[in-house]
Amino acid sequence: MGRDVRVLKPVISGFTPEDFDESDSVRLLRALGQDATADAVAAISPWRFQAPLSPDMAAAREGRTVPFDDLVRFCRERVAGHDGDTLIEGVGGVMVPLDETRTVLDWVAALELPALLVVGSYLGTLSHTLTALQALRVRGCAVAGVVVSESEDQPVPLSETIATLRRFEPGIPIGSLPRVPAESADGRGLLELLVPS
Q1: What is the CA radius of gyration of the chain?
Q2: How much is the pLDDT for 191?
């Protein structure tokens, strides 16, 4: 689309050598048409943990922590050093613990960047989404929009979930990302949605 887009996935858990090609970091790089080398992944995902757990737990299993101040500094430097669009993918939901005392919400608040909340269409998503939006508001975080990514199992059609969210959040742009077969899911559709022309 002619946009200069940079992606960051600073913290990732469930990252193993065996699943390297299926990791979020690799998918993001490939969606931008970039080579997904080990160095390229390290450049966008400096805090990688093997256990598929919340970052605080996954890091503890390796005798490590997520250094919150370094994480915020890393993101700020990458955003400031780039004239185009920078998308920073979080990890889990807004209340996922990053360390002993801070959550993803603390990270979003510290960055002072608009948040794009990506949610599923599974049973329970209405409560989870509205709660996450309320938590973001309480912390003074700007919300750029909500993307409902179609879940494999959903109790109602995607359109009904979106209509309900729009009814409760009329001032927030809410879009959808329909489910695509795994073999064709290269991430390009998501980036086109997030960075419209």
Answers
A1: 17
A2: 41
- Which residue is listed with tokens 């309320």? 134
pLDDT tens string 42-82: 999 999 999 999 999 999 999 999 999 999 999 999 999 88
| Mean model confidence pLDDT for the chain | 91
Is 129 within 8 Å of 96 (Cβ atoms)? no
Which domain, by its residues, includes 92?
A: 1-97
- The CA-to-CA distance between both ends of the chain, in Å, stands at 7
Catalytic site residues?
9
Check whether residue 192 and residue 156 sit in a common domain: yes
The one-letter amino acid code at 31 reads A
Question: Rounded to the nearest 5°, which phi and psi values hold at 86?
Answer: -120, 125
Note whether 64 and 127 are same-domain residues: no
pLDDT of residue 197: 33
CA distance 190 to 28: 10
